[in-house]
Design a protein that fits this description.
Elements: H1 2-8, H2 10-17, E1 27-32, E2 34-38, E3 45-48, E4 60-65, E5 79-80, H3 82-85, H4 93-96, H5 101-122, H6 127-137, E6 158-162, E7 165-166, H7 171-186, E8 192-194, E9 201-203, H8 247-262, E10 267-270, E11 273-278, H9 293-304, E12 317-326, E13 329-339, H10 340-354, E14 358-359, E15 365-366, H11 373-377, H12 391-401, H13 407-420, H14 425-435, H15 441-445, H16 461-483, H17 491-501, H18 507-524, H19 526-540, H20 552-587
Length: 604
């Protein structure tokens, strides 16, 4: 299905990405490092080609003839390696170690003769190719007037220009290669078969004509259809013929996939997974991968106003595929086929369910932070390299397809909170998302901020009690810190794991210890004592008993209650401090000597 969709939408994809049409048949974009310039009245010269971007050192990217070749001798017209073009085997000490120099030299001469013969055939239809053929007939690596660059490498590609014109761009050359290259490729074909992509009958490819480039964590060139072992072969079909595809189809879907991988608006990378997406109706890039807060606000405003955020009709189809490298091949991890309107609706729900009170760098309370999927993926782990396979893919399906998050992800979050003895903003947000998947959006929004009532929206008695146990634990921690400022290891550092899983084993001891802390506060900070005592009483009313154990789901509610209470206390303290500063500023007398407060000039 994937290759059929890419084949069908190839023209639309290329127009949305780089604006270029499909390249000529048997042509492919490659980086050409050297150009042999042949001009009338001048000696031939070889010059380096520079490109743009990080790969500039490898030459300029251009469309040149292409054909996949294995171990045999097969020249590529007018754009090949030094051994084919010039009959020179560039030294490479590591690659040449243990090889027979005489056999290598014989192979190089064979490659050069094959290249000359191919150019000679093309010279019959192109005058520029005839100039190149004449140069090759008179070429000798001993010529003193033509020196090879000292930094030329064995894998560099060389092409030709005649009087400033690239020979590979000649229409006659392209027509010749479309016919000759196809005939050469079909020499290895496995007979006439039906193409699984286009449905046409004809010769099928032994190797895909267009390699996949730009896959995260993969090699520079990979195959999306291949078989390199007899275990993958059947019915005497080997290599890419195990899934027969004709050249035209292979070129179309290969070029389309590479265009998606090269366009920042049509792919996203998370760890070793690469997601490509497109809509034949226009651009529609999901914003859940790397959401910008301002962009999220514009997105939500547009959708809530009944408008489409994308310049595409809501009924237009939308496709997304998750790709991962597997040795030298491309593996498809996930596939999504929906509409633009549906992914808009899913993303609105995604951001709404992830909405969680938090604080920015300045300490201001925020509840509309947009989390990138890669940040959410690592929330349950210590670092990126520990992320289990499939975590990011599960989150992508949650965000764009509305699938429920797997239960093991909630377990991972709970275990991470216990291991680190703290609940971070992103963990709380993802925990709340998983816990409220079965709730309505209205019930889910009630858990965005702290909840202080006995009946928490949407929760059963056990989960609600676990939630309030988390709030009580956070308050007891706050009482301890108020009574013993600067304490190194508080009750969270010592008892979070036990309190969140076996409340009955520790809460009695914690409440006894809190009485000593409250007694100290009553003597030293009467206001802090009164506030803490009141909050403990309000929370205790919501707790019927201390269960001996808590289920995984209840442990998650414990962590959410713990985080909510701490966030609420921080917001209260921040707002009180801001109010005091404002009141103090309003009461301070004006400094009449301050130049900023001096009367302005009457002519201003």
């Amino acid at each position: 299905m994937i290759l059929q969709l890419l084949h069908r939408d190839a023209d639309a994809i290329l127009s949305q990405t780089d604006g270029e049409p499909l390249p000529p048949s048997m042509y492919l974009k490659k980086r050409i490092r050297w150009l042999i310039d042949l001009r009338t009245g001048r000696p031939p010269a070889i010059t380096p080609l520079s490109g743009t971007g990080t790969a500039a050192a490898r030459g300029a990217e251009m469309l040149v003839p292409n054909v996949k070749r294995a171990s045999g001798v097969r020249p590529i017209l007018l754009a090949d390696k030094p051994s084919y073009v010039l009959g020179i085997r560039v030294p490479d000490p590591k690659a040449d170690l243990g090889r027979d120099p005489a056999k290598d030299e014989e192979r190089t001469l064979t490659e050069h003769r094959a290249f000359k013969e191919l150019v000679g055939e093309c010279a019959a239809v192109s005058s520029d190719a005839a100039v190149v053929a004449a140069f090759l007939d008179g070429w000798s690596k001993e010529q003193p007037s033509f020196k090879l660059p000292p930094d030329m490498e064995r894998s560099d590609l060389i092409t030709f220009a005649v009087n400033g014109r690239l020979v590979v761009e000649d229409g006659a050359v392209r027509a010749f290669w479309a016919s000759h290259g196809r005939d050469a490729a079909e020499e290895d074909a496995g007979g006439r078969m039906q193409c699984l992509v286009s449905g046409a009958w004809g010769e099928v490819e032994e190797m895909m004509p267009v390699p996949v480039k730009g896959l995260a964590g993969g090699k520079s060139e990979m195959a999306i259809i291949s078989a390199n072992s007899s275990a993958f072969e059947s019915y005497h079909l080997d290599r890419a013929r195990t899934s027969p595809v004709c050249r035209d189809a292979g070129e179309r879907f290969g070029q389309a996939l590479n265009a998606l991988l090269a366009s920042p608006d049509h792919h996203a990378r998370i760890q070793t997974a690469t997601y490509v997406y497109w809509s034949p109706g226009g651009k529609a890039a999901p914003i859940v991968f790397e959401p910008d807060p301002q962009e999220v606000r514009r997105f939500l405003s547009a959708v809530h106003a009944g408008q489409s955020y994308y310049a595409t009709a809501g009924s237009a189809p939308f496709y997304l595929f998750g790709l991962v490298p597997n040795a030298a091949r491309v593996a498809v991890r996930s596939a999504l086929e929906t509409t633009v309107g549906e992914i808009e609706r899913r993303q609105v729900e995604w951001f709404a369910r992830l909405n969680m009170i938090g604080f920015d760098e300045a300490g201001r309370a925020v509840v509309d932070r947009a989390w990138p999927i890669k940040t959410l993926a690592v929330a349950g782990y210590r670092e990126f390299k520990e992320i289990a396979p499939g975590v990011e893919d599960a989150l992508v399906r949650c965000a764009l397809n509305g699938e429920p998050a797997p239960a093991w992800l909630l377990k991972q979050l709970v275990n991470r909170c216990r291991a680190e003895r703290r609940v971070t903003h992103v963990r709380a947000a993802l925990t709340k998302f998983i816990l409220t998947q079965e709730f309505s959006l209205l019930e889910a929004s009630a858990m965005t901020n702290e909840v202080s009532t006995k009946q928490v929206a949407g929760l059963g008695p056990d989960e609600a009690q676990a939630y309030h146990l988390g709030r009580l634990f956070a308050e007891l921690e706050e009482v301890q810190r108020a009574a013993i400022p600067g304490i190194n290891a508080g009750i969270a550092d010592r008892f979070y794991g036990s309190a969140s899983s076996m409340p009955a084993s520790v809460f009695g001891m914690l409440l006894d210890g809190a009485q000593n802390h409250l007694a100290k506060l009553r003597k030293e900070r009467e206001g802090a004592y009164s506030g803490s005592q009141k909050r403990i009483e309000e929370i205790s009313v919501c707790i019927d008993r201390f269960p001996p154990t808590l289920t995984l789901k209840s442990q998650a509610h414990f962590s959410l209650g713990y985080y909510h209470h701490r966030a609420a206390r921080r917001r209260t303290v921040t707002e009180a401090a801001a109010a005091k500063r404002a009141a103090r500023a309003a009461q301070e007398p004006l400094d009449i000597d301050d130049p900023a407060l001096a009367p302005g000039d009457e002519n201003d």
